[in-house]
Amino acid sequence: MSASIEVRGLSRTFHTTVRRPGFTGTLRSLVNPERVAKHAVSDITFDVSPGELLALLGPNGAGKSTTIKMLTGILTPTAGEARVAGVVPYLERERNARNIGAVFGQRTQLWWDLPVRESFSILRDIYEVPKAEHASRLKEFDDILDLSSFWDTRVRHLSLGQRVRCDLAAALLHDPPVVFLDEPTIGMDVVVKEQVREFLRHQVEQRGRTVLLTTHDMTEVERLAERVVLINHGRLVLDGSLDEIRRTFGSTWQVRATLADAHTDVVPPPGIAVLRQDGPQVVFGPDGPDAPTVHQALKAVIERYEVTGIAIDEADLEDVMRAAYVQAGAA
């Protein structure tokens, strides 16, 4: 099965004029402007499969939004190529628009002075969605996002959480196979965030949509994404599963076990060390670069020893990603 999103050597360079200080400097900038190149995205390559939710992560200014703008057809790359659902987005913008949905957390595609319901009707006509399909999708979205309680309200009077829920529904009304979400839950309260996460899980798992998500919310990443692409200074520095990232940047897990026999000779499995032992209480941790994940270690300990109690501690994903950002920035 071919990838829903294919990115090959994608790059985008912006050129800006340096403003020199003072009146003389302003004149020089007009007569002989100094142009500086900023490489927002540099030679990144990755694929996203159908029915996969990929988290595109990185610190502010890393190039995440620029990448999404090229994939949605808003920007044309300086070099490289991309395909979204088989379409080159910046060459076939209208065709691409029918294949994708997009939500940018601080912007809306709804009509500011119209009730939400009327915005949905306009989008139905723009995308030529049959009325029966339109009604069926709205009901499906309403069941999870609770839209009907405010869809007769003008968009300008919606709260942030209500508006983003409506934007999510609007982005999916024409049933696109690929969805781009650029920090969609920024500023939301925890209740609305969980509604949005449930909605996204449903779209990926039940509808088979491909979702590319950018966010700074690590809880969101942990609950939604199985795979992460990390970019920094416009370059791709990591592409892997959450387990691989934890193993590389956050191997600080511990397995605390209570052994049934306090006199058991504790010889740990490969890649696992005994950090401390107090009678039947044994604390295991990672040993070396080939250490297993915390869940693999848990399984190994249970299989090797007779235990009466067990617990695990592992690095918070936010700490893991912070370590990844720092290491990527130093590379």
CATH class of the largest domain: Alpha Beta
Which structural class do the helices and strands define?
alpha/beta
Shape: globular
Helical content (DSSP H or I, runs of 4+): 25-40%
CATH homology superfamily of the largest domain: P-loop containing nucleotide triphosphate hydrolases
Question: Beta-sheet strand percentage?
Answer: 25-35%
Order of helices and strands: EHEEHEHEHHHEHEHEEHEEEHEH
Write the layout of secondary structure elements.
Layout: E1 5-18, H1 22-31, E2 34-48, E3 53-57, H2 64-71, E4 79-84, H3 93-99, E5 100-104, H4 116-126, H5 131-145, H6 160-172, E6 178-182, H7 190-205, E7 210-214, H8 218-224, E8 227-232, E9 235-241, H9 242-249, E10 254-259, E11 272-278, E12 281-286, H10 294-304, E13 307-313, H11 317-330
Parallel strand pairs: 3-7, 3-8, 5-6, 6-7
Antiparallel strand pairs: 1-2, 1-4, 8-9, 10-12, 10-13, 11-12
Describe this structure in words.
The protein folds into two domains: about 50-80 and about 85-245, P-loop containing nucleotide triphosphate hydrolases (Rossmann fold); about 250-315, no CATH class. It is globular, with a radius of gyration of 25 Å. The protein is α/β, with parallel strands linked by helices and about 325 residues long. Helix 5 (about 130-145) runs antiparallel to helix 6 and helix 9 (about 240-250) packs across helix 11. The chain is built from eleven helices and 13 strands. It has helices spanning about 20-30, 65-70, 95-100, 115-125, 130-145, 160-170, 190-205, 220-225, 240-250, 295-305, 315-330; strands at about 5-20, 35-50, 55, 80-85, 100-105, 180, 210-215, 225-230, 235-240, 255-260, 270-280, 280-285, 305-315. The mean pLDDT is about 85.
